[in-house]
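Annex B. Sample input.
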Amino acid sequence: MAELTTNTFDATSDNFDREVVQSAVPVLLDFWASWCPPCRMLKPELAALAPELAGKVRVAFVDVDAQPEIAEAFQVRGIPALFLMKDGEVVDSWTGFTPRAAVKQRLEQHVGKIGT
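Annex B, continued. Sample output.
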């Protein structure tokens, strides 16, 4: 597992069950690709938000080119695609670039107030 920043990681088929499905806290999955401009805009927004989410939500990045089996399992048809997993189940999902404040607001509907 490659640690990107505090509270973020790269999800792979090797660590997915342990780090996502069995996670004690919800996990926000960001399905992305390096060739996708909106994905390249969203990834740093999520990385910047991740420290505020510590203890409430972890952020996992799923490269659809490197991990096609995970993308297929979630039936990802467009990217960026975000899925919030809680207790091993998808509780929210959406597609497209979403500003950091809007992501935070959407997550708060599921985990309560985030940050200060």
